Structures are given as C-alpha cells and as structure tokens.
Amino acid sequence: MDRPLRIALLTYRGAPHTGGQGVYTRQLSRALVARGHDVEVFSGQPYPEVDEGVRLTPLPSLDLYRQPDPFRVPRRSEFRDAVDALEFAVMCTAGYPEPLTFSLRAWRALRRRRDVDVVHDNQCLGYGTLAIARHVAPVVATIHHPITVDRGINVAGASSRWQRFSIWRWYRFSAMQARVARRIPHIIVPSETMRADVARAFRIPAQRITATPLGVDTDVFRPLPHIEPVGGRIVTTASADIPLKGLGILVDALARLRHTHPQAHLVVIGTPREGSDIPPLIAARALQDAVHFRSGLAAEEIAELYASAQVAVVPSLYEGFSLPAVEAMASGVPLLATRGGALPDVVGEAGLLVEPGDPETLRAGLARLLDDGALRGRLADAGRERALRCFTWEATARATEERYRAAIAARSGRLARP
Q1: What is the pLDDT of residues 56-83, one digit of tens each?
Q2: If we measure between CA atoms, which residue out of 356, 358, 16 comes closest to residue 217?
Q3: pLDDT tens string 111-138
Q4: 345-349, long-range: CB < 8 A, 24+ apart
C-alpha cells in the first residue's frame, strides 16, 4: 500500500471569495486529508479557509490590493525585507507583483525543509517555484486557465492606446508564468479544453498535461425543496469583476429581457471592484432596482440563493472550468451558459448553451428558460445527475494524488541515475 504523502499546497491568494482558486485550495486540501495525507497550505492574503486536519502557514505580503484601500502606499515600518520592496516597486510601475513575490516567500519558507514529499503550485508559477523544484521537492502545478486569455480580452476591450499599454504592463507576470510552466514536468488542468489551450498558450507538450475535473460539495449544493423560487430571479456569480466574466453583457441582456419579462431581476454573487464599469452600466440601463449584489456569503447561503432562482447563468467569455456552473447544476437549478472555453465540456447536455459575447443570444436564452417550466425541470434534473456522476472532490483528490506520485517517482529516478 502506498504511504501517505506530505504535501505543501501553494496558493498566493487563498480566500474563497477571491474566486475558484480559493475554493480549489479548501476543497482539495480537505479531500486529500480525508485520503490520509498530510497537507500544509502556504498562502498570502487574503488567507484561505481550511478545514480540520489541514495546516495553514501564512506568508504575509504587503497586501497592496486589500479593501477598502487598494493600491495603497505602505508605511515605512511595514517593509520587512527586499521582497516587500520588490512588491511595492512592481506595483508602482503598474505591474502585478503577487505571483512573483509570493513564490519568493514560499521558496524562503521551504528551502530548508526536508519533510515535504511534493509541492503543489496552485497557478502561482513564479520564479521561486523553480527554486523549490530544484532544491526542495518535485512540483506539480495546476493551471486553471492561461492568463494570456484574460490579457487578450482586456486588450481587445481597451478604448485607447494608453489603456492597452497599461493592460500589457499589468499582465507582465504572464511571461514569467509561461517560462515557469515550460519547466515544470507535471501540470494539471481542469478540462480537456484547457489541456489543448494551455499547451498552445504556454508552448508545453500536451503529454505533460493531465486533465482533472474539479468537484462540488453535493451535500451543500443540493436541491432545497423548502425554498420556493422567486419569479423572474436570475442568479450569477462574479467573484472577479473583469470583462472575461461577461457581467456587462449579462446586464445588457437583462435590460433587453425586461421589455418582455418585467419581473426579471438579477442577483450577483460578488461585488463590483473599485472603478468598475458595471455600476455606471446598471445606471445607464435604469436597472438599479433590478440588479442586486451579495457578497461575503458562506457556501450554505450561496446554495440557498441558488434555490431561490428560476435560472442560473454563466455569461463568461471564457472559462477554464467554472465552479459556479457545477454548483448551480448540483443545486438543481436550470443553467444557461455560454460556449466560452471549457463550459461545453463542463455543462454537457445539462444546460442551455449560447454563444459568448452576445447580449441578444443571452436574452433569448433567458426568455426561453423563464417561459418554459418543463424545460427548466428537465435541465434541473439533468444538472443534478451530471454533478453527482462527474464532479466530486474525492475523485479530484484521487487523480491529483496520482500526479503527485508520478512526480515523486520521476524525481527519484533522476536522482538515482549515476
């Protein structure tokens, strides 16, 4: 029988409300511990929620993007070392420093450790990760989707040369991530679509990449018959208020929909970032009373919100997997999603799919679902069945463990050669 593993799981931003990476960290670490492994999570701010049996080692940064004062100027007394100085300097040049500086802090924390069998990098891909792989333990990396896609969509939506230049400066770290990814032999992605996209974007041989779908907690995200759906309620998740997630397109679709369905209203799980285009768009479409934001919700509260909806929607231009889609399906809520990225792989026949980036096709899909109760019932049943059959964290942990053992065996083989 294979012995339990000592696993260091790295996540530069671990809180669940920051997006799918935080959910991945919590659920995967819990499932690995349930399989008998020792898991230590290393994280920068905002820190993750971890379950009993999972150890958390904080690696504090300057936390330059915290609310309510993002892009803040730290006091001199807050600077502890050269990595802090580097973090502030990169921010001052309009770059995003966290993947690099977190990886350097992780290297510093792990470089003298001899009690780690494998290190799992959760899409940090900083230069410090390479030092860890060289001197500490084999590294397995998860890439949820290539960040170059975010960069391309943001550049395409820029309104001026200066804005395009600013976006390129912000995404300078993507070149580092590509270089690091090419030197890590064991990479996990959440879908077959991402296997092809990551191989192409980062110029990595596809045979080094394993597709391992993510899971959903079907005990939390489940049908709740005691909650009656609210007429016209549409629910979406926008933990990251960025153009990639398509929230602006959904707002436009809602404005069109309300001409024929005046009860239609949108509840957004998330909150607009400072300087977001979404609140002005809502005001311009006179939707202030029809769009509501909810943030800081526990998983159980999100499940209750899904249960109150007639339709859940994922309007993203591109997704590497989409945990919200799986959560909605597991909750037995009829799902409308785009064909962006891996969404067709995830949803299959259990949801209604439309082309991304088009508010009119999104409006038509919403109208069809709101008008057809029989279709909503079929999709709700199909979604729940698909979630139970295809997406469990135990299966994710089992497949991830196989990658860990392959990486350990490959490193042992290299070290054993004369």
Answers
A1: 999 999 999 988 888 999 999 999 999 9
A2: 16
A3: 999 999 999 999 999 999 999 999 999 9
A4: 345/191, 345/192, 345/193, 346/191, 346/213, 346/319, 346/321, 346/322, 348/386, 349/382
Q: Give the span between the Cα atoms of 232 and 43, in whole angstroms.
A: 40
Instruction: For the chain, give the secondary structure using H, E and C.
Output: CCCCCEEEEEECCCCHHHCHHHHHHHHHHHHHHHCCCEEEEEECCCCCCCCCCCEEEECCCCCCCCCCCCCCCCCHHHCCCHHHHHHHHHHHCCCCCHHHHHHHHHHHHHCCCCCCCEEEEECCCCHHHHHHHHHCCCEEEECCCCHHHHHHHHHHCCCCHHHHHHHHHHCCHHHHHHHHHHCCCEEEECCHHHHHHHHHHHCCCHHHEEECCCCCCCCCCCCCCCCCCCCCEEEEECCCCCHHHCHHHHHHHHHHHCCCCCCCEEEEECCCCCCCCHHHHHHHCCCCCCEEEECCCCHHHHHHHHHCCCEEEECCCCCCCCHHHHHHHHCCCCEEEECCCCHHHHHCCCCEEECCCCHHHHHHHHHHHHHCHHHHHHHHHHHHHHHHHHCCHHHHHHHHHHHHHHHHHHHHHHHHCC
Domains of the chain: 6-215+393-416 (3.40.50.2000), 233-390 (3.40.50.2000)
pTM higher than 0.85 for the full model?
A: yes
Structure tokens at 113: 């450790």
pLDDT digits (tens, 9 = 90+) for 173-211: 999 999 999 999 999 999 999 999 999 999 999 999 999
Q: Characterize 98-134 residue by residue with b for buried, 16 or more Cβ atoms within 10 angstroms of its Cβ, and e for exposed.
A: bbbbbbbbbbebbeeeeebbbbbbbbbbbebbbbbbe
